[in-house]
Amino acid sequence: MKMKRQQVSTVLPEQHQAFNRLLGDPVVKRFLAWDTYLRASDKYLLAMVIASFSRAGLFSWQYKRIHFFLALYLANDMEEDNQGPKQAIFYFLYGKNRSQRRLFQKLRFQFFCSMHCRAWVYPEELEEIQAYDPEHWVWARDHALFF
């Protein structure tokens, strides 16, 4: 008989609080409103942001707006075959100015390394992250409703 391995989330309440604080950031708010079809920021990708916060090892008070976008970019990198959502993040942040993209990619790599290169998140962990506060408005961001 084969036992199924129970996946236990290591996400702490502090990471949820850091995520919620960043959702109140005016730039993050504008991005989420701008992504009307939820291609770059649906509920699963946003749950992956919280998982990334947990794995990166920063204190919750250290998370800044850039960490939100780095984690969201990594989530899109892991989950989406289409380059469009990642390019949308760049376009939103920097417009047509490509000079900042190299710095963003450097920061993305450092953030990924701080996560011990563990960007993959199991579906069970995503469900557990969403179950922490199931009535939160971000969990209604389901891009499958658009197709």
UniProtKB/TrEMBL annotation:
Family statement drawn from the similarity comment of this UniProt entry: Belongs to the Speedy/Ringo family.
Protein name: Uncharacterized protein
Superkingdom, taxonomy of origin: Eukaryota
GO molecular function: protein kinase binding
One family name in Pfam for this protein: Spy1
